[in-house]
C-alpha cells in the first residue's frame, strides 16, 4: 500500500500525488484498497485476549469497508451496525439477532449552566456490577463525538451485562466536573435517561417510526474463466490497424454500415478454434443480428517460432471459418491495451479468445474475454440503442441503485486519458458525444451542472489547440466554458489568449476585466489586461493596468516588463516617461528579467528612450543570440530592426 513519507519534505504536494499514483498502480494491476481482506469482529472474553468471531457472527463480508457506526437501530436493546464501503454495496446494515437480554443503555443530557454541553460529549459513565458470587466489577464508557474513520456511532452509551450479574448503580462524571454523580434504580434490559444534576433515572420510551429492512443477500459473481464486460457508455476507439490476407494495411476507424465483432485468436488456442468453428456454423445468427465479424490472428505476436501464414490460413479452412481473416500487429494490440487501461482501468494481459463488440458509429460497446455464445452477442448488439439507464444496469455486476443521480460522471477524466495516450481526435469525439446527451447532467443543480459542462467545453478548447486547429474552432468552446462558469481557474485565461491570437483584442480585454472583477488582487490578470490593451492600441489604459498590477505585486517581472515597455515606447508623448522607464528597467534587471530576449528588448528600449544608446545596443546584442536559439524569426527581425535604430541614435516609439 502507499505510505506516508518517512522524512520531512519541502514538497508535500508532490509526495501526496506520488502516493496516489502508487495506489492507482496497485489497483490497475488487480490489487484492492483493502487487500481483499474480509471484515473482522472480535469477542471480548473477559480476559486479556479476544476471540476472533468474524465468521460465526456473519460479519466477515469481503467488502472494502471504511466506516462503522454502532447503534441500537431496531430498539431491541443490543447494538446493530451500519457499515459503509468504498465499493458496492456502499452501505450495509447488520442487524444483531442475539437473544441475550444482558444489556443496558444510557442517554445523557448535560447542563450547559454547569459547563457541560447538552449532548454531554466527553462524559464518562461507570457501571457497578455484582456477579452471583458477590464479586463486584466496575465498567467504564466515554461518550465521544466520533468513532473511527468518517463514522459517528449512536450517542447512547451501551453496556453488556453478563448473565447472573446485577447492577448496583451507575455514575456519570460530567464534562466540567471532577467527581461522579450517582444514579440509582438502573436495571438491565432498558435504556435510561440520565440528566445532569438530577441524580434520578427515567426509562426511555420505545423508539417509533424506525425503518425496518427485510433481510437480503447480495451474491457476488463467482470467479469464472470467461468475462463479459458491458460498457455503461459506448466509447470512442482509436484507429485499429491490421493486415488483410494480401498483406495490405487496413485501419478500422469511424462509422460503418453495421456493428462489428472483432475477435483475436491463435492456431495454438483450442478454445479459439472451437469458438470460431461454432460461430461459423451459426453464421445465420450473426446475419440476423446485423453483425459483421472480423477474425484477427495473433500467432505472430504469441509464438516464439517462425510463423507460416499459409499454415494459419489452412487452420482457418479446417474449421470452415466463415468470416474475413486478418493479422493483428503490435500496434493494434497496444491500442486495445490502452483502451482497456483507460476505460476498464485494471491492466491485465489480453486472453485468447478475446472479442470486442464495436457499434456502427465505431464505438466500443462490450468486451468478451474467453469464449462467448452468439446468442449473448446478438442480445448485446440489440441493446446498443437502448436507454442510458438500461445500459448502466446491464454494466453492473449485480443489482442495486445507481449513484448517477447523486454523483456527476467525469467525462473529462476519460478524455484526458485519451489525450495522454495520443488520441486527441477520439477525446474530442467522446466529449462531443457527452454534450449531445443531456441525461448525464439532468436533475443536478444549475451551478453543479454548469461547472461540469464548463470543464467539458474547456477541454474541447484545449484539444483544438493541441491539434493546432485554427483559433476559430477553439473559441466557441472557450466562450461557452467561460460563460457557464466565469470562476473556472483557466477558462478565462485560455479564452483571452485565443482571442488575442485571433486578433479579437476588444473581447479579450472584456474577458480579462471580468476575471479581475472576480479576482481583483491578481497581478497576473492586470499584466495580461495591459498586454491586451497594448495590442488594441490603448497605451494609456495599458499603463493604468500595469500600475494596478504593480501595486498588488511589486516583484512581478511580467508587470514590471509591461509597464517599462509602455513608458519607454509609447507613441503618445503624454504617456512616455523615459526616467520612470529607466528606473523600472533597473528593477527588472535586478529581478532576473534580463535572462530572456523579451526582457532584454524592454531594458534596451528604456535605455534608448533615456538617450543611452550604447547601453541599448549592448542589451540588444545580448538579446539576439537568445532569440536565435528560440528560432522565432519574427522576434529576431524585430530585434534587428530596433538594433539599427539604436545604432543610429533613435529611440523606438512603436508602442
Question: How would you describe the overall organization of this protein?
Answer:
Helices cover 41% and strands 17% of the residues. A hairpin with a 5-residue loop joins strand 4 and strand 5. Helix 18 packs antiparallel against helix 19 and helix 19 runs antiparallel to helix 20.
Task: Provide keyphrases for this structure.
655 residues; alpha+beta; eight-stranded mixed β-sheet; four-stranded mixed β-sheet; 21 strands
Number of strands: 21
Main sheet attributes: strand count, strand direction, barrel closure: 8 strands, mixed
Tally of alpha and pi helices: 22
Mean pLDDT: 89
Helix content: 40-55%
What's the overall geometry?
flat
Low-confidence stretches: none
For the largest sheet, list the strands in their spatial order. 14-21-20-17-18-19-15-16
Strand content: 15-25%
Query: What structural class is derived from the secondary structure elements?
Result: alpha+beta
* Rg over C-alpha atoms, rounded to the nearest angstrom: 36 Å
- Terminal Cα span: 59 Å
Amino acid at each position: 500500500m502507499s505510505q506516508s513519507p518517512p522524512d520531512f519534505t519541502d514538497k508535500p504536494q508532490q509526495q501526496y500525488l506520488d502516493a496516489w499514483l502508487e495506489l492507482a498502480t496497485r489497483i490497475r494491476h488487480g490489487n484492492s484498497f483493502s487487500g481483499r481482506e474480509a471484515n473482522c469482529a472480535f469477542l471480548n472474553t473477559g480476559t486479556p485476549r479476544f476471540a476472533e468471531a468474524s465468521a460465526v457472527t456473519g460479519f466477515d463480508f469481503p467488502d472494502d469497508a471504511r466506516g462503522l457506526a454502532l447503534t441500537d437501530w431496531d430498539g431491541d436493546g443490543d447494538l446493530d451496525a451500519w457499515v459503509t464501503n468504498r465499493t458496492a454495496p456502499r452501505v450495509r446494515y447488520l442487524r444483531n439477532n442475539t437473544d441475550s437480554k444482558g444489556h443496558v443503555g444510557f442517554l445523557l443530557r448535560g447542563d450547559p449552566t454547569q459547563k457541560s454541553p447538552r449532548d454531554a460529549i466527553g462524559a464518562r459513565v461507570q457501571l457497578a456490577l455484582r456477579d452471583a458470587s458477590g464479586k463486584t466489577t466496575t465498567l467504564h464508557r466515554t461518550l465521544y463525538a466520533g468513532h473511527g474513520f468518517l463514522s459517528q456511532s449512536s450517542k447512547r452509551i451501551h453496556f453488556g451485562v453478563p448473565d447472573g450479574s446485577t447492577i448496583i448503580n451507575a455514575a456519570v462524571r460530567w464534562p466540567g466536573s471532577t467527581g461522579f454523580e450517582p444514579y440509582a434504580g438502573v436495571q438491565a434490559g432498558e435504556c435510561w435517561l440520565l440528566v445532569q444534576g438530577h441524580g434520578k433515572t427515567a426509562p426511555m420510551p420505545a423508539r417509533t417510526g424506525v425503518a425496518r429492512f427485510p433481510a437480503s443477500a447480495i451474491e457476488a459473481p463467482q470467479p469464472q474463466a470467461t468475462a463479459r464486460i458491458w460498457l455503461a457508455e459506448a466509447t470512442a476507439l482509436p484507429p485499429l490497424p491490421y493486415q488483410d490476407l494480401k498483406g495490405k494495411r487496413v485501419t478500422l476507424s469511424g462509422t460503418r454500415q453495421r456493428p462489428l465483432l472483432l475477435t483475436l485468436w491463435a492456431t495454438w488456442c483450442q478454445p479459439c478454434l472451437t469458438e470460431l468453428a461454432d460461430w461459423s456454423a451459426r453464421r445465420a445468427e450473426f446475419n440476423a443480428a446485423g453483425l459483421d465479424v472480423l477474425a484477427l490472428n495473433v500467432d505472430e505476436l504469441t509464438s516464439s517460432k517462425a510463423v507460416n501464414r499459409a499454415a494459419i490460413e489452412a487452420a482457418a479452412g479446417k474449421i470452415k471459418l466463415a468470416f474475413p481473416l486478418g493479422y493483428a500487429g503490435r500496434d493494434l494490440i497496444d491500442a486495445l491495451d490502452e483502451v482497456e487501461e483507460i476505460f476498464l482501468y485494471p491492466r491485465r494481459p489480453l486472453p485468447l479468445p478475446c472479442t470486442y463488440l464495436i457499434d456502427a458509429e465505431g464505438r466500443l460497446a462490450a468486451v468478451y474475454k474467453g469464449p462467448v455464445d452468439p446468442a449473448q452477442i446478438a442480445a448485446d448488439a440489440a441493446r446498443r440503442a437502448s436507454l442510458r439507464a438500461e445500459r448502466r444496469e446491464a454494466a453492473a455486476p449485480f443489482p442495486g441503485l445507481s449513484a448517477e443521480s447523486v454523483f456527476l460522471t467525469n467525462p473529462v477524466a476519460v478524455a484526458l486519458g485519451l489525450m495522454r495516450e495520443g488520441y486527441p481526435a477520439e477525446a474530442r469525439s467522446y466529449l462531443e458525444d457527452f454534450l449531445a446527451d443531456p441525461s448525464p447532467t439532468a436533475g443536478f443543480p444549475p451551478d453543479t451542472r454548469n461547472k461540469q459542462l464548463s470543464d467539458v467545453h474547456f477541454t474541447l478548447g484545449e484539444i483544438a489547440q493541441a491539434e493546432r486547429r485554427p483559433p476559430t474552432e477553439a473559441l466557441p468552446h472557450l466562450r461557452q466554458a467561460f460563460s457557464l462558469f466565469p470562476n473556472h481557474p483557466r477558462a478565462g485565461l485560455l479564452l483571452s489568449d485565443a482571442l488575442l491570437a485571433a486578433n479579437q483584442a476588444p473581447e479579450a480585454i472584456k474577458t480579462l476585466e471580468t476575471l479581475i472583477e472576480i479576482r481583483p488582487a491578481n497581478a497576473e490578470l492586470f499584466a495580461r489586461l495591459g498586454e491586451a490593451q497594448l495590442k488594441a492600441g490603448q497605451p494609456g489604459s495599458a499603463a493604468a493596468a500595469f500600475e494596478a498590477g504593480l501595486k498588488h505585486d511589486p516583484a512581478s517581472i511580467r508587470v514590471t516588463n509591461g509597464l517599462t515597455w509602455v513608458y519607454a515606447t509609447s507613441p503618445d508623448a503624454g504617456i512616455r516617461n523615459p526616467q520612470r522607464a529607466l528606473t523600472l528597467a533597473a528593477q527588472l534587471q535586478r529581478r532576473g528579467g534580463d535572462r530572456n530576449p523579451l526582457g532584454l528588448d524592454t531594458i534596451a528600449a528604456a535605455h534608448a528612450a533615456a538617450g543611452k544608446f550604447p547601453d541599448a545596443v549592448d542589451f540588444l546584442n545580448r538579446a539576439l543570440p537568445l532569440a536565435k536559439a528560440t528560432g522565432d524569426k519574427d522576434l529576431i527581425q524585430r530585434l534587428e530592426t530596433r538594433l539599427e535604430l539604436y545604432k543610429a541614435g533613435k529611440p523606438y516609439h512603436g508602442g
